Structures are given as structure tokens and as C-alpha cells.
Amino acid sequence: MGSNSFKKIIGEMKDGKYIQSSFSKKTMGVGDDMSATGSISAKKLQEIETVLKAWLEECRQAGVESTRAVATAAFREAKNKEEVMAIGKRIGLPIEIASEARESELAYWVGTLGETQQAVIDNGSRSIEFVTHDPKTGYQWKVYNLGYRVSFKKFFEGAKDFPSAKASMEKELRATLDSVSFMKEQKKYVGVEFSEVVDFSFQLDSEKTQVLTLKTLLSKCGEYEKMTAKEFSELKSKPNADRALPRLVVASFFAQKWGYSEMTVVERELGVGLLIERALRK
Predict the structure, then answer these.
(1) Which residues are within 8 A (CB) of 261 and not within 5 positions of it... i.e. 6 or more apart?
(2) Angle (CA) 48 51 52, round 5°
(3) For the domain bounded by 112-265, which CATH number is listed?
(4) pLDDT band at residue 205 under the 50/70/90 scheme
(5) Nearest Cα to 129, choosing from 107, 113, 150?
(6) Would you say 5 and 28 are in contact if contact means Cβ atoms under 8 Å apart?
(7) What are the tens digits of pLDDT across the range 117-129?
(8) Extended strands (E) in the chain
(9) pTM beyond 0.70
């Protein structure tokens, strides 16, 4: 239950591998609805219940063993989050409103399937989670409200060209560097929720794990930087531009600053973390 999109995922861990059998996605706009008053509106709550009930029934028909839901940033911030929990009780669906630490931990499992010493960025619509895990020190994490929808509105929407949008966004990202220094010198740099960058900017198959080199990321930024004001305006109006452009800046900026030559972009969604967790506990 993301701040912008809900996803229904049916899957399992088998022989150390994640196997997904069904995936559905629906744009819900909970974050935008909540931001006006600080609460989720009655109309949106009804929409949430309708979608969850339908998906729960689909899971039952598919013979799913157990169901769980995890809600992210917008739900943490909503004044009436208890009404969302009440929906879960009414329909028989356990709903967890994840803390920042919990969401970061789930994101790490999604990106690594449990492998240690990797630097994982989960770039959602409202927030970005930075997280690593080491057997000795455990999890280290940090969350910033610089998700793609927040960043697009703040840096891209009113910008006349890509260089000015990128420069403004990188200035704010630069302010986070000291607090996320734990992301350096890990075995791998992994991106969760970066599939729109793969689709939009590189026309690759986002349903497979992709590796984007730093050279490729910088080349694409350079291509956008050469655009005229008109071309940039047209680029911003394309479907999913708001999802892809801020994430492209994030991916390239931190790869440079942390010294990674590539980012591994996994196709898995945050909810997969619940499935991995269940398998590990078994």
C-alpha cells in the first residue's frame, strides 16, 4: 500500500529463489489525497476498502496460504491511520503501517533476497530509503522525503530545462551525503522501485533484473541536458516522466558520490519483503 500505488503480489520463496505468480498494480494517490488536510478522506478510505476487498477475494480464489498488507509513508503521516487499520480488521486482512526502520528493512530484503553488505536505495513516491546490512553491525538506514512525486513537483515541474532541475535536486541530495555515508564500500549498489527509469529512459525489459552502468546513467543525463526548452517540456509531459526523471538523477548522483560503477535494478516491489520475511522465519 504505497503512497501513490497499491500492488497485489502473489509469490513464494522456493529453494532460495523468489518466484512470483501474480502481480497487479493500481494508482491510488493516497499521498496526494492526504497532503491537503493531513488525513485520508472518507472517499479515499472507501476506495481503499473496495480495492483491498477485491484483491483479497482474488487471493482466496488463487488458493493463497496467507495474506498480509504493508502500508508506507503516507499512512505513517496520516492523522487518521487508525481508520486504515480498521479496514483491515473488517475485511480480515492484517495491515501493518511500517515505520521508517521497518520499511527500510523490507526494502533491503527486496533488493538483496537476504544477502549482506549491499547498498540498497528504495525510491518510492514520497520517500527514499537508504539501507545496508552487515552481520556484525546489523541494519543501518536513513529515510528522506524526496520520493519521485515530491521531487518532480519541487524540482522538475516548473524547471525550464533538465540541467536546472538536476542541479536543484542534486543540491538537496548533497545535503544527505554525510548522514548516509554507510552506503559506501558495499559489495553492490541496488535500486528498488527504479523500473520506470529502465522503461522510460532506456527501453529495457523492467521485468528482469537490469544493470545500469554509471557511464550509461550519465550519458542519458547528458542527452537530456542537451534538450531545448520545448523538447524538455515535451519530455516532462510523457507518461511516467514524473516517475523516471527524478529517479535517474538519484541513481546517477549517488553512484558517483559513493564510487559505484553500476546499479543493479531489481524488478521486485516492496511487498515482496513480506514474502521473503515469511520464508526466512520458516
Answers:
(1) 213, 214, 255
(2) 80
(3) 3.30.420.150
(4) low
(5) 107
(6) yes
(7) 999 999 988 889 9
(8) 5-14, 17-27, 69-71, 95-97, 118-123, 128-134, 138-144, 188-192, 210-213, 262-265
(9) yes
CB atoms within 10 A of CB 228: 9
Q: Three cell numbers at 33?
A: 489525497
Start-to-end Cα distance in the chain: 24
- Sign of the Cα torsion 136, 138, 143, 148 reads positive
Which cell goes with 181? 555515508
Strands, DSSP E only, in 43-127? 69-71, 95-97, 118-123
How many CB atoms lie under 10 A from the CB of residue 225? 14
Q: Is the CATH code 3.40.630.30 the one for domain 5-97? A: no
What the block records as the C-alpha cell of 276 is 521473503
With 90 as the cut, is the pLDDT of residue 241 above it? Answer: yes
CA angle 77, 112, 241 (to 5 degrees): 55
pLDDT mean over 177-190: 96
Pairing, β 210-213 against β 262-265 = antiparallel
Provide the angle, in degrees to the nearest 10, between the axes of the packed helices 195-202 and 214-225.
60
Q: Which ranges of 11-63 would DSSP assign to H, the alpha helix?
A: 30-35, 42-61
Ranges in the chain annotated CATH 3.30.420.150: 112-265
